[in-house]
Design brief:
Elements (H helix, E strand, L loop, with lengths): L1 E5 L7 H15 L3 E6 L13 E4 L8 E6 L5 H9 L2 E8 L6 H8 L8 H9 L4 E5 L2 H11 L27 E3 L9 H12 L7 E3 L7 H9 L3 E4 L8 H8 L3 E5 L15 E3 L4 H12 L2 H15 L4 H16 L1
Length: 325
């Protein structure tokens, strides 16, 4: 099958990783995939097997499936609706599941002209399918609106992100360090201040802003015994899942984006959002016994192997076969 994407750019962002990684897996399964963005230039930071072209070229390409991933710009959505494709879809990559947002989606066609307007319109059209990177988003949308959605697309590259215990030295705790509010790094920092009151030599390692290439990023994860994540909002939490795939014991916040990999007490320790004290307690518990860290990390690696982009490609392929039948 011929599958196309419309994305805003091919820069170094988690949502773009998902598009490229899934495209690679689809190509491995024998499909033809092209990623369209404004510049039409190749992806420079991640291995990409897909063809790349300008956005305008997507409109008349006659794809079996054309998927739109944007920041919900209405103009891009209008172009999707005009495109020559057998199936058109929009991909949701994170929102805050509030009552107000549910009412906004259910208020179509009187929804204001903002991000929710595109999603609300797509949900109420028979000629546009709604996808997401994480399953929780589709479940929530269906519960709140009674509208049918398609399938979810998130995964983990367990060929790239793998454990290597030999790279570990003294106990090391890491976090992304991403300063954006929705990433919750302030919660992580507050938790570490509590932990360092008892363990003053412990430091928090971060990778944000260090411009690591992919090999360096993998090695960075492999060196961590514990990984902390304070996300407040997201669709599919790449940092948590990459850390898990590399064997770190993860402590993360209880939001939909960490499901289904981060299962409290089994594959990760999950604490309430914005609960720095709870996160610190979880870290203290892990530091109290090296086998606890090892067991949690080993379980995380096993869990990650069930959520590869190959499985995500199979889900999309199966859904599209049914849609085209």
């Amino acid at each position: 099958m011929r599958i196309g994407w419309m994305v805003p750019h091919l820069g170094c962002f988690g949502s773009i990783r998902e598009v490229v990684e899934l495209s690679n897996a689809l190509i491995d399964r024998g499909h033809a995939v092209t990623i369209h963005h404004q510049e039409g230039t190749p992806c420079a930071w991640l291995p990409c097997q897909a063809a790349v072209g300008p956005t305008d070229a997507a409109l008349a390409a006659g794809y079996d499936l054309l998927l739109l991933v944007t920041e919900w710009r209405r103009s891009d959505y209008e172009r999707l609706l005009q495109a020559d494709a057998r199936v058109r879809g929009v991909v949701v990559m994170g929102f805050t599941p509030t009552d107000d947002f549910a009412q906004l989606l259910d208020g179509w066609p009187h929804t204001p002209s903002n991000g929710g307007a595109v999603l609300a319109d797509a949900l109420h059209r028979e000629d546009v399918a709604v996808f997401a990177d994480g399953p929780w988003q589709l479940e929530w949308i269906e519960q709140q609106t009674a509208c049918q959605t398609a399938t979810w697309l998130g995964g983990v590259n367990t060929t790239m992100f793998t454990p290597d215990p030999a790279k570990r030295g003294p106990i090391s705790i890491g976090a992304s360090g991403d300063p954006r509010d929705r990433k919750g790094t302030d919660t992580v920092q507050a938790a570490m201040r509590i932990v360092r009151a008892r363990h003053p030599r412990l430091q928090l390692a971060t990778y944000w802003g260090k411009r690591l290439d992919q090999d360096q990023l993998v090695e960075w994860y492999q060196r961590r015994h514990v990984f902390l994540d304070g996300h407040r909002r997201g669709g599919w939490c790449n940092p948590v899942f990459e850390a898990m795939a590399c064997g770190a014991a993860v402590v993360c916040t209880d939001i939909g984006a960490v499901q289904p990999l981060a299962v409290h007490g089994e594959t990760a320790l999950v604490v309430p959002m914005d609960d720095a004290a709870g996160m610190a307690d979880a870290v203290e518990w892990l530091l109290g016994s090296a086998p606890r860290i090892e067991r949690l990390g080993e379980a995380a690696v096993r869990k990650a192997r069930y959520y590869t982009y190959g499985r995500a490609a199979w889900r999309l392929e199966s859904w599209l076969e049914r849609a085209l039948a």
